Amino acid sequence: MAGPGALTIACGLLVAWHIGLGSDPFMLAVMALISMLGFYRLVAGRLWFGDLLVAGGALYSGFLPLIIKGALGQPLQTNLHHPQEAAGVMLSGFLVLWCLAAAARTVARGRARFPLTDCYENPELQGRLFLPLLGSGLLILGLHVALRPRMVDAVLQQGPGFGGFGSFTFLLILALALGVSRTMRGQGGRAVLAAAGAALLLMALASNTRREFAEFVLVLAAGLLIYRQRPGLPMAIGAAVAGAVLLLYVAPLIHLMRGQTAGLGLVGRLELAFNILVDHRFSPGALRLAEAQFLTGFGYAWSENGSYIWPSTRSLDRFMLILPIDQVLRGLAQNGPIGLTPFLREIAEGVLPSLFIQKTNAVGADLVAWEHGIRQYGNAARPVIGFTASALAAAGMWGVVLLPVLIAFPLMLTGNLIFGPLAHRAIGIFLLAQGWILPEMTFDALAVFALRPFVLMLIVLWLLARRGPQRLRVPQSAGA
């Protein structure tokens, strides 16, 4: 599969295109540098767990903004109030993470073996776990979609429900990762994966979120990246079809269904989706026009101050983390930093059971969005803020530099010591697909992830691995 050379060519073409568009030279240099540094270990087949945050940061802070703004014909500095300052802050936060990831790799290289990762390479264990995990994962996801509490009228008031099943939805990603690993090795399972993809498509429509089906597409892409293989014709066609369905049908349907799903069960939501398709004659163009009209009604998000790609109505701002950094910089001049205390409270609420602490529905992203006018106070339509913007909002540049050391580095080091190099590993597929959401997290959300979901995931992986052979001799991958 193409490596650093292809990455260099891709970045070079994007830079040339943006020079033609008149993009700010400093911003262009920053985003190109972030893309090159962040993706290098991934495309070179040298990925460790700690590099996931760096690669994800490169995707959201460099590569996707270059692609999206370039595709729309917009210079990088448009719709930003402090373009160069925001780019400088973004680069500072990224470089801190990059250095921490390098330090975490250096420490973890002292280990000779990584038994948990090795265990999941055993074909017998993969075959034993694949179908049971897939079935239980789909069941748990279905229960989570059906029973989880939902916000009422887009404000921070939840209806009745039970959200505990959401803690175990990673089992489905693990099952898909094992299935893709088996397929890559010629052990079958394509039909089962296709059926799982169809089920997740229906689940995404029923839950009114893109995440369920998007994660299926991500697992397929992660398999190609981790095993560094050129896709065969069946997988290439399957990935292309899945991506097209996600972009042309699922994304607009999710938006058009919003506000019409109250009181509807799973079957009712699927019927609503089908009726919308019929009303628009199954035409992607008609769905896109209706989605654009819907999105223009959100005054905070669709405006010159609230969107990085305005006047485009594409719902893509979440993939470009320079926007929230710029928005926080606008607010800091008037309000100053929020301080760490409110975020420490959010971390405690996220980690401790309700028996020990009274919980609210607001999270760190809400605090940043409300304080700096990104969203109207009380609105539950959470924007993606990211680690650097939230650290800047809480403690200024000191937060951008120090909070990654306190929160991200322990997580990177722990993951590296447990999992080791991820290239050509089924666990690598799982972690790459599971970790795509990490760059979107505020620093308090990442702390909660490290202290609760990550620990739970490790316990479950260890328990499942005990079903396999106790002694494995799997060669370590090269290029660690």
TrEMBL record:
<feature type="transmembrane region" description="Helical">
    <location>
        <begin position="88"/>
        <end position="108"/>
    </location>
</feature>
<feature type="transmembrane region" description="Helical">
    <location>
        <begin position="48"/>
        <end position="68"/>
    </location>
</feature>
<feature type="transmembrane region" description="Helical">
    <location>
        <begin position="129"/>
        <end position="147"/>
    </location>
</feature>
<feature type="transmembrane region" description="Helical">
    <location>
        <begin position="159"/>
        <end position="179"/>
    </location>
</feature>
<keyword id="KW-0812">Transmembrane</keyword>
<feature type="transmembrane region" description="Helical">
    <location>
        <begin position="235"/>
        <end position="257"/>
    </location>
</feature>
<protein>
    <recommendedName>
        <fullName>O-antigen polysaccharide polymerase Wzy</fullName>
    </recommendedName>
</protein>
<keyword id="KW-1133">Transmembrane helix</keyword>
<feature type="transmembrane region" description="Helical">
    <location>
        <begin position="26"/>
        <end position="43"/>
    </location>
</feature>
<feature type="transmembrane region" description="Helical">
    <location>
        <begin position="445"/>
        <end position="465"/>
    </location>
</feature>
<feature type="transmembrane region" description="Helical">
    <location>
        <begin position="384"/>
        <end position="410"/>
    </location>
</feature>
<feature type="transmembrane region" description="Helical">
    <location>
        <begin position="191"/>
        <end position="207"/>
    </location>
</feature>
<keyword id="KW-0472">Membrane</keyword>
